[in-house]
Amino acid sequence: MPKRKAITPELPKTLRPAPPRVALSVGDAAESTGLSKSTLYNCMKAGTLKYIKAGSRRLITVAELESFLARLPQGPEAA
């Protein structure tokens, strides 16, 4: 009798960990940074925040978002 290959059950899609995201919608970027969508749109319009246009959607790469946040002015250090 031939050996059977072990079958590992696959998790349902809802239980699988989501792959890391490389780009965020403006709403998701606002939620993850604590900035408003209006602030992000104004920064995109001013050219200080780069984005990708995919159809009618604007996507902000995680790398650009991190770079943008690093360029913002820092507040005074806590005593």
Which characteristics define this entry?
3-stranded antiparallel β-sheet; about 15% strand; alpha+beta; elongated; Multidrug-efflux Transporter Regulator, Chain: A, Domain 2; about 80 residues
Architecture blueprint of SSEs:
Layout: E1 23-25, H1 26-33, H2 37-46, E2 52-54, E3 57-61, H3 62-71
Antiparallel strand pairs: 1-3, 2-3
Brief rundown of the structure:
The protein is 35% helix and 14% strand. The chain is of the alpha+beta class and 79 residues long.
CATH architecture of the domain at 22-71: Orthogonal Bundle
What is the CATH class name of the domain at 22-71?
Mainly Alpha
* Structural class estimated from helices and strands: alpha+beta
Task: Give the N-terminus to C-terminus distance in angstroms.
Answer: 75 Å
Compute the CA-based radius of gyration: 20 Å
Mean pLDDT: 88
Proportion of β residues? 5-15%
Instruction: Give the ordered list of helices and strands.
Output: EHHEEH
Percent helix range: 25-40%
Total DSSP helices:
3
Largest sheet: 3 strands, antiparallel
Residue runs with pLDDT of under 50 for 5 or more positions: none
Describe the global form. Answer: elongated
Widest sheet, order of strands: 1-3-2
What's the number of extended β-strand segments? 3
What is the CATH third-level topology name of the domain at 22-71? Multidrug-efflux Transporter Regulator, Chain: A, Domain 2
Write structural notes for this entry:
It is built from 3 helices and 3 strands, in the order βααββα. The protein is α+β, with helices and mostly antiparallel strands. It has a domain at 22-71: Multidrug-efflux Transporter Regulator, Chain: A, Domain 2 (Orthogonal Bundle). Strands 1-3-2 form a 3-stranded antiparallel β-sheet. The N and C termini lie far apart (75 Å).
